[in-house]
Amino acid sequence: xxxxxxxxxxxxxxxxxxxxxxxxxxxxxxxxxxxxxxxxxxxxxxxxxxxxxxxxxxxxxxxxxxxxxxxxxxxxxxxxxxxxxxxxxxxxxxxxxxxxxxxxxxxxxxxxxxxxxxxxxxxxxxxxxxxxxxxxxxxxxxxxxxxxxxxxxxxxxxxxxxxxxxxxxxxxxxxxxxxxxxxxxxxxxxxxxxxxxxxxxxxxxxxxxxxxxxxxxxxxxxxxxxxxxxxxxxxxxxxxxxxxxxxxxxxxxxxxxxxxxxxxxxxxxxxxxxxxxxxxxxxxxxxxxxxxxxxxxxxxxxxxxxxxxxxxxxxxxxxxxxxxxxxxxxxxxxxxxxxxxxxxxxxxxxxxxxxxxxxxxxxxxxxxxxxxxxxxxxxxxxxxxxxxxxxxxxxxxxxxxxxxxxxxxxxxxxxxxxxxxxxxxxxxxxxxxxx
Length: 435
Known about the structure:
Distance between the termini: 55 Å
Radius of gyration: 28 Å
C-alpha cells in the first residue's frame, strides 16, 4: 500500500521506448551504443533478409560459422560510421551467431567503430546499405542504447531513433554538447527512476521502515513491538535501515556491473520478492531485535544484483561504468530519501495511536500478498496479477498519496492515545496544594 503510493507520489514521468530487439519480423534491428572512444553497433538481421541479400541459407550455427568470415567482410563493405572528425575503423567484437528474435532466426553480430588514440567527437553518421542495396523495401530499425557523453541514457528497451529503407540508408545522430558530466547526471536520474518505478524495491524499503517507530522487546514467546519511541530514535533507526540497505546493494551493484560475478535473472527476481516476505514477517512480529538492519543488509545484496542489470544494459566502457555505478547509487539513495521523507512522518504520527500495530500488520499482509503474486508471475513468465492495481495507482499519483495521508491522519485522530479529561485539572490542583 505505502510503496506504490510513494512511488507515484514522487511524480516521476517515464518516457515509453520501443525495443529494437522486438522489431517487426523480416526486418533488421541495429542497437547503437556511443561510448567515449567508440561506437558499437549490434546488428540483428532476420534470416529471410539475410538470405535475400547474400544468397546464403543458414539453417544452423555450424552453417553460419562456415561463412562467417566472408559474411563479415561483405557486411563491413556496406556499413560505415563517421563522427565529426573522420570515418571510423570497424572491428568485429562478436562473431555472427543465430539468435531468436520474434520467434524467427536472426543473425546477430557486434562491430566496434573507432579511431584509435582519440575520443568520439560531434555528430555520428551511420550509413547502412546491407540488404537495402538488394531489397530496398527492407526496413532497418535503428535504436540508441546509450550515449554517455550526450546524456542519453534510459532504462529498459532502447529507443528507436530512425527507420532506414525505401531508398534511405543514412541517419545522423545529433549530439548537442557532449561531456562526461552529462552521462553522470543522467544516470543519477536513472537511479531515481529505477526506484520510483520499482514497486518491489520500494515495497521492501517501506516494509522495513514501518518498524522504525518501534522497538523489539522480549515477550513470553519470542519478541514483540513496542511504540511509540522518541522522535530522534525513530529517525536514527530509519537512517540505519536505509544505510544498511545502501551498503548491501552497493556491493553487488559494483561487482555485477563490472562483470566480476554474475547470477541468473529469474532466481534474483524471486529472491527480491522473498526479501519482501521476510521483511513483512519481521514487521508483524520481530524475528530478532534489530532484525530489520540484518534483513536490509543481507537482502540489499540481492537488490543490488537486480540494480546491476540496468548498468549492464547500457553497454558502457570501463571508465563510464565506474561513473555509472557511482551515479546510479546516488540516484537510488536520493529516491530512498524522498520515500523516507514521504512515509516516515506518517508512520511517526500513527505510532502514537492505538491502531499502529494493526496498521503495521495490514501493511505487512499487503506486502506478502504482492510478493507472492510477483513470485507466481516470475515463475510463469507473466505479469503479476496485481499489476493492473499498480498501473491504476500510477495514473493518479497525487490523489492516491493524499488518500494515504487522509487515512493515516484519520486513524490517528480517532485512535490516538488520550489523557483522561480531568488529568490536567487534577495535576494543577495537586501543584496548588503542595507547600
